[in-house]
């Protein structure tokens, strides 16, 4: 005689029950942790912004953020203004750092939507920094950056990161030896936006020429480097009108 538990219907019902139980537990966990997750994202953005303007705990070679327990106080101390640029207007918004750049990019593809562009104004040692969050595409997945500029769109610092670039190759965009090369690079040339190209076989491997709009590429990471170049050009160009207003004020 066939046991009731040997029937296919029992197996199916058991599987459905397990899915419902596990799904409910996961949903509950996600809901319970939502506040913590959002808080961690907020702290990470603050750390990224601060890093780009030189507020970090770097040693001679490694890239180290301000610790999470110090980040909120440091953010309040060094970031004097948060702006949202949209449709030619720059308005103060204390929650500008919460803007999802990826979502804004997606909405802008619809054509009629005008992107909101977050920008952070920081002051350190009597020097003003304009920090811009940007996002692009690497070899395997998303790459992003926080770029600190002066009023002339000269890079004062950067922080790059990625979601899934190749370890030891494209993943090295968040290493000091690559990021520090961008400091001092000019985005403009004779009043025209040029961006910065990550070039393999760059004729200036020590990166002494800061006006050639080039930095040396990471060996074996050509596609990731191309993604960095494209991201810097397409995203930072959107901020040129704002920086031109700084010249007239």
The strands making up the biggest β-sheet line up spatially as 2-1-3-4-5-6
The biggest sheet amounts to:
6 strands, antiparallel
Distance between the termini: 90 Å
What string, H for helix and E for strand, traces the elements in order? HHEEHEEEEHEEEEHH
Percent of residues in helices comes to: 25-40%
From the spread of the alpha carbons, the general shape counts as globular
| Rg estimate, integer Å | 23 Å
Structural class: alpha+beta
Uncertain stretches: none
Number of E-type strands: 10
Summed up, the helix count is 6
Average per-residue pLDDT, rounded, comes to 89
Total domain units? 2
Strand content: 15-25%
Keywords:
249 residues, alpha+beta
Structure description:
The protein is an alpha+beta fold and 249 residues long. The chain folds into two domains: 6-40; 80-248, no CATH class. 36% of the residues lie in helices and 23% in strands. It contains six helices and ten strands. Strands 2-1-3-4-5-6 form a six-stranded antiparallel beta sheet. It has a two-stranded antiparallel sheet with strand order 7-8. A two-stranded parallel ribbon has the order 9-10. Helix 1 (8-52) packs across helix 2. The longest helix has 45 residues, at 8-52. The chain is globular, with a radius of gyration of 23 Å. The relative contact order is 0.11. The model has no long low-confidence stretch (mean pLDDT 89).
């Amino acid at each position: 005689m066939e046991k009731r538990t040997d029937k296919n219907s029992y197996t199916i019902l058991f599987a459905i029950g397990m899915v419902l139980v596990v799904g409910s537990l996961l949903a509950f966990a996600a809901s319970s942790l939502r506040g913590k997750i959002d808080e961690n994202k907020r702290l990470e953005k603050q750390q990224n912004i601060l890093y780009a303007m030189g507020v970090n705990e770097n040693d001679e070679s490694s890239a180290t953020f301000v610790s999470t327990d110090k980040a909120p106080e440091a953010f309040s101390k060094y970031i004097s203004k948060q702006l949202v640029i949209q449709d030619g207007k720059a308005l103060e918004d204390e929650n500008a750092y919460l803007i999802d750049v990826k979502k804004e990019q997606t909405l802008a593809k619809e054509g009629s939507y005008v992107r909101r562009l977050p920008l952070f104004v920081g002051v350190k040692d009597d020097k003003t920094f304009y920090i811009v969050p940007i996002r692009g595409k690497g070899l395997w997945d998303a790459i992003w950056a926080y770029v600190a500029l002066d009023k002339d769109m000269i890079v004062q610092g950067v922080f790059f990161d990625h979601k899934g670039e190749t370890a030891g190759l494209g993943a090295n965009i968040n290493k000091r030896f690559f990021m520090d090369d961008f400091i001092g690079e000019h985005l403009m040339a004779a009043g025209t936006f040029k961006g910065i190209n990550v070039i393999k076989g760059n004729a200036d491997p020590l990166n002494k020429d800061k006006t050639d709009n080039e930095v040396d590429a990471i060996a074996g990471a050509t596609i990731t480097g191309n993604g960095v170049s494209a991201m810097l050009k397409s995203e930072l160009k959107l901020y040129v009108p704002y920086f031109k207003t700084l010249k007239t004020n």
